[in-house]
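INTERNAL AUDIT FORM
Audit reference: QA-55
Scope: verify that the stored structure record matches its stored sequence.
Auditor: D.O.
Record contents follow.
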Amino acid sequence: MKKILTVLMGNSLEWYEFSIFIFLGHYITESIGLSQHILFVSLGLLISFLSRPLGAIVYGYLGDKKGRKHVLLASVTIMTLATSLMGILPSGSDYKSLSVTLLFFLRFLQGISGGGEFTTSVTALYEIKKKASVRFVTSLSYSSAQFGFLLGLAVSFVVTALIKSQVLPEYAWRVTFLLSLPVGISIYLLRTKFLELDDGVFELNKSLTSHLRNLFSDYRKAILTVFLMNSYAQLLFYMFSFHILKWSSVCQIDGKCSAAVFFKVAGYLSLLILFIPLSAKGLSNFKNNYVANISSLMALLSCMLLVIAPELNSTKIIFLLSLGALLSCLPEYFASLFPREFRNAGISIPFNVSAALFGGLTPLIFSFFNQLPDEQIFSALYIFFSFLLFYNGLRLMRSTTR
């Protein structure tokens, strides 16, 4: 249990930073002298997502060569430094160019660390647990990420209240980033203590290019399966994180959030956090492809309804149920596609490429759709396109042997 918790803590820290950057973006931009905070936050998120594939290549290779523990220690170190340094960015219009440059560089580092953290945690969890409970344990990777998002929302709500009451208006948002320093150090120490050292599983003289060449030569179908299926899951996952909150008018990106609004948003996040492991446990007797088939169709239908009628609370619950079921089965299946010597790179690279394309670009794409007269039609078509990718991934899934 200690091993599992130390692995999951890094996911929560990553998404905590992700959350406070979104919800406190208004105050960050004001502090460094910018006005277009929505564009600024979207660009910051895009940079971190686009750098994830680079982190996936490096950390995927190192995780296979040096071992999972080395990657988990390195990723949490970079993540902690990048997040903490955001709390001491220069303020004021005189340092605007410097602050923006530094912040985007730190977002780049955040993406590098994220490219290794989540997928290496899935690999580590898959290899820690026995077969009987592996779906449940690997599903916790998504729940821990959403828990970090919820924690960031709670901290942002408190800080917003402080700023409104004129308590530390200039520095309150900085504290939220600086808090990651002691937390990150604690995670590093716990991982050092409880995670076993893994010296890797292939010869030390094998180069990065050689490893990737063998991976893409022998496991092309598995890589494509992960990319196609994760593209749809990523769109749903990040659409929930950004757009259901916006469509439902339960949160605004400028930080204006009442207690009623906070508890409503927190309720939705809590449901998803619970639905993912409960689905993994309750549907454990069903094969991954059956769960993926049914839950993906339910998610598509409920997602379409949310685009058309975002005010329907019952549709949100159905969507969260289906999304929870879908996310519960994917980590175990992705890990099972690759042998141990290729597993970390095999999951990390296609997972993070699809995250960059269907996670990082999602806010900008839907923001663009919002400017069009037929917003709902374009949103629905985009969601359906991602579902078609997932469906082709399902076809490959049926033909790919474990």
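Auditor finding: record pair retrieved intact. Residues 2-195+211-397 form a domain with the Growth Hormone; Chain: A; fold (CATH 1.20.1250.20).
Action required: none
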